[in-house]
Write a structure and sequence with these properties.
This protein is α/β, with parallel strands linked by helices. It has one domain: Rossmann fold. Helices cover 44% and strands 15% of the residues. Belongs to the short-chain dehydrogenases/reductases (SDR) family. This is 2-deoxy-D-gluconate 3-dehydrogenase.
Length: 255
């Protein structure tokens, strides 16, 4: 008998780890998952994530915070151990933390390239690997990797960023292929510019208006729209969606 639509989005009894969760897309994802009943573990390098976790809907102490720098060796495995130790399990991983160091290709420094790959690619893989082991053991899991429209198109001054996000999509597909038999789905989400605090600053003024003019919808995405898509992929409603890169860009890449 088919489940009712509302039940498909019920995450009661699930534990979700969201990285980069102190603000922006990570916070929007955490809010969406918490509203659906999940217990949240919020990870961020910013200690303010503790206050964010305390403010999420739910009983006092329900949600936990992990303050960590994911580029430090061993941080990913330690974070997963911390979450499973505090919450008893890990069902959902949202790999959201990232960085955009923009520079023309001919002048981009090796350090900027390495920093981009460390946070945008290596850390998400190590987190997925550590979380995946726990999910394989339990026979269930949902992993959502934040990519970008930059994973499928070229953007000037984004050479390291584009490369890292394209690699995230490739990684997503391999993990989806290998882990489906364990009840795990792995998908990527690729937004256009999102109206986070950082997004509004980076795309303020004429450069932002020019970018909006290229988007058929005529605007940037809202964080809650990305959070809703992440909720869908983390829910039973998307149980048959696996290895996909879902672009949410108002039609930008349809042209």
């Amino acid at each position: 008998m088919a489940q009712q639509a509302g039940n498909l989005f019920d995450l009661s009894g699930r534990v979700a780890l969201v990285t980069g969760a102190a603000s922006g897309i990570g916070l929007a994802a955490a809010e969406s998952l918490a509203a659906a009943g999940a217990r949240l573990a919020l990870l961020d390098i910013n200690p303010a994530v503790r206050e964010v976790a305390a403010a999420l809907p739910g009983s006092a102490g329900r949600h936990v915070a992990v303050v960590a720098d994911l580029v430090v060796p061993g941080a990913a495995e330690a974070a997963v151990r911390d979450v499973t130790g505090q919450c008893g399990q890990l069902d959902i991983l949202v790999n959201n933390a990232g960085v955009a160091l923009l520079e023309a290709a001919q002048t981009l420094s090796e350090d900027a390239w390495d920093r981009t790959m460390a946070l945008n690619l290596k850390a998400p893989f190590l987190l997925a690997q550590a979380a995946g082991r726990e999910m394989i053991r339990r026979g269930y899991g949902r992993i959502v990797n934040l990519a970008s429209q930059a994973s499928v198109i070229a953007l000037e001054r984004h050479v390291a960023y584009c490369a890292s996000k394209a690699a995230i999509v490739g990684m997503t597909k391999v993990l989806a292929l290998e882990w489906a038999k364990h009840g795990i789905t792995v998908n990527a989400v690729s937004p256009t510019v999102v109206e986070t605090e950082l997004g509004r600053k980076a795309w303020a003024g004429a450069v932002g208006e020019a970018m909006k003019a290229k988007i058929p919808a005529g605007r940037f995405a809202r964080p809650d729209e990305i959070g809703a898509l992440i909720l869908y992929l983390a829910s039973d409603a998307a149980a048959m969606v696996n290895g996909e890169n879902i672009v949410i860009d108002g039609g930008y890449t349809a042209q």
